[in-house]
C-alpha cells in the first residue's frame, strides 16, 4: 500500500472512528434527558431518515472521487474542476428535492415505520403517527445541505486529500451532538416544552451539524485553492467532455453505491417490517417483542457498527487509488494494494469484533444498563461486524475496477436471502434468528463480490487466505487469553454495574490489544502492514524498537 494511501486511510479512519464513538456515547446523556418514550420516538424515525440520507449522500463522494481521480491520472485536471463547478448547483437542487420528498412523505413513512399493532399495552402505543411525522420532518432539513457537502468531500478525496473529509466529519458530529443534547435539555427543562418538540430539536441537529461541516470544508477550499489552481496549469487539455457525458458517468458510478450505502438500513428495514409480527406469532408478549426489536435494531447495532468504522474509511480511500492503478493497467500495484487492504482490514476488525462479543455483558451494561437479552444479542451480533466491513470494502473495490454493476446484484441477492429467511429463523431462534439471517444475507453478497474481484481484476486470493489464517490464529489466542482475564475479573467485579463493567472492559481490552500487538510484532506482520509508523508509535509509547 502506498504511503499516501496508508496516510489517507489512517486520517479517514481516525476521523470516522472519532465520529462513530461520539455518535455512540451521546446515547447515554440523551437517554437520561428524554427517557424511554423519547428514545422510542427518536428510533421510530431512524430507519426512514437513514435511508433517505444514504440515498442523498452514499454515492456522491465515492463517484466524484473516482471521476476526478481517473481524469487527474490522465492529466486532465480541468475536467474535474468543470464537474465540481456545475455539480455544486446540481447537488443543491437535488438536496432541496430530497428534502421536499422526505418532508411531504413523512406521514406515510411514519405509518410504515411504526407498524402499529392494535390492542397493545406497550409504552410505544403512546407514540402517535403525527409525532413521528413531526420528528421525520425536523430531520429532513439536513438533506438540503448534505448532498452539497458530499460533493466537496468527494472533490478533495479525488485529489487524495482525506484531511478535509475527516475533520469536517468530526466537526459535524460534535456540533450535532452539542445542539442535540443542549436543545433537548433546554426544551424540556427551561421552556417546559413537550417531548415531541424536544426530540424534533434533537433530529433537527443533523441540519445544524451539516452547516458546521460546510464551514470547515469552505475553509479548506480557500486554503487548498492555490495548490489546486497550480494543477490546472498542468492540464493537458486534450479532452473536452460535455456536462451530459460527465453526469452520465457520475450516475453510472454513484447509482450502485447508493444501494450499497443503504444496504444496512434496508436490512434493518426488513427487520422492522417482519420482526415484531414474527415474534407475536410465537405467542410472545408485545412488550417483550418490541423490547427485543429495540435491542436488535438500535441498541446493539450502535455498538456493533463501531468496528466497521475502519471499513468505511477504507471504502472512501480505496476507490481513487484502485481506480488509478486500474486505469494505468498496473496489475502488480493493484494486487499489492488489495493484499494490504484485506490484511489491514482483518487485522484490525477481526480481533475487535470477537473481543466485543467476549465482553458483550459489561459493554452493554456501560451503555444501557444490565439486561440479559442485550448481552445475548450483542454476543451473537458482534461477529457480524466482520461481514459488514468485508461487504463495504469489497463493494468499494468493485467500484474501483469499474464493475460496480455487480454491487447491485450482490445487494439484491443479500436482501433476498435476508427477506426469505428472516421470519422462519425468527420463529426458530427468536432474536438470534434475525441476526443469523442478516449474517447469511451479507455472506451471500460478499461471496458474489469476491468472485467478481477474482474474475475481473485477476486477483489471486491465495496469499490473503494464508495471512487471514494467521490473523485468525492470533485472534483465537487473544480470545482464549482474554477470556481467562475476564473470568478472573468477574470474580471481584460485577458486570451488572456500570462503573465495575467499565473497569472490566478497560482491563480486558488493553490486555487483548496488547496480545494482538505482541503477536503481530513477533511475527513482523505489523511491520509488513504498517511500516515505519509502528516504530513511531513505539517511540511515542517509549517502547524498545
From TrEMBL:
Q: Name one Pfam family in it.
A: Polysacc_synt
First-listed, main subcellular location of the protein, grouped into a coarse class: membrane
GO CC, alphabetical: plasma membrane
Keyword annotations of the record: Cell membrane, Membrane, Transmembrane, Transmembrane helix
Transmembrane region positions? 12-34, 46-68, 88-106, 134-152, 173-191, 197-222, 250-270, 303-323, 344-368, 380-401, 408-428, 434-457, 469-493, 499-519
Task: Give the signal peptide, or none.
Answer: none
Compartment(s) of residence: Cell membrane
What topology does the record note for this protein and the membrane? Multi-pass membrane protein
This protein is called what?
Polysaccharide biosynthesis protein
Q: What organism is this sequence from?
A: Bacillus methanolicus PB1
